[in-house]
Design brief:
By secondary structure, the protein is an alpha+beta fold. It has one domain. Helix content is about 20%, strand content about 30%. It has helices at about 10-20, 35-50, 125-130, and strands spanning about 1-5, 50, 60, 65-75, 85, 95-105, 110-120, 130-135, 150-155. The protein is globular and about 40 Å long.
């Protein structure tokens, strides 16, 4: 897990891209997470390099490998036992790997704080090791009620992004 600075440029680009995109079909947060998702992509790129592509199937291309960036908002520094998730309807995405990011957001002011690139996982192997949870089910590891069918894996089980280079 590596902390990455969220720059003003990242914020501005994320706002612009989120407005252009609008609400995605099957959005768990009715489009509210779009800005956060774009900030996550910029943070991943700042740390890992590559080119942002923004397709339905992947977001970032590094050395010919296609990464889909999965970003969650949080209110504090992530802990190793916290989960990363891939929604079940995203399992058909044509990417090679997932990279997971957390963006800190103040609940009251909605201001962005810190960001962490948590790690990556090979897409095919992810589903072999991840836990499946159904919408409405409480996750026994953290008691969060799942908002959509998803596959979860702990941060501590991800591969370090520094191992990519």
């Amino acid at each position: 897990m590596i902390e990455v600075e969220i720059t003003q440029k990242m914020k501005e680009q994320a706002w612009r891209k989120a407005r252009e995109m609008g609400e995605l079909k099957n959005s768990i947060t009715a489009g509210d997470g779009n800005i956060c998702g774009f900030v996550g992509e910029f943070c991943a790129q700042a740390l890992m390099g590559g080119i942002i592509e923004n397709t339905r199937d992947y977001d970032l291309v590094i050395d010919g490998l296609k990464y889909d960036v999965k970003t969650k908002r949080c209110t504090s520094e992530p802990q190793p036992h916290y989960d990363c998730s891939v929604a079940a309807y995203n399992t058909v995405q044509k990417c090679d790997r997932y990279v997971f990011v957390r963006i800190e957001q103040d609940k009251k002011t909605k201001r962005w704080g810190r960001a962490w690139v948590l790690g990556w996982y090979d897409k095919e192997e992810y589903y072999e090791y991840a836990r499946f949870l159904q919408k409405g089910q409480k996750d026994g590891d953290n008691w969060f009620t799942v908002k959509a069918d998803c596959f979860n894996i702990a941060i501590e089980d991800l591969f370090d992004v520094r191992e990519l280079h």
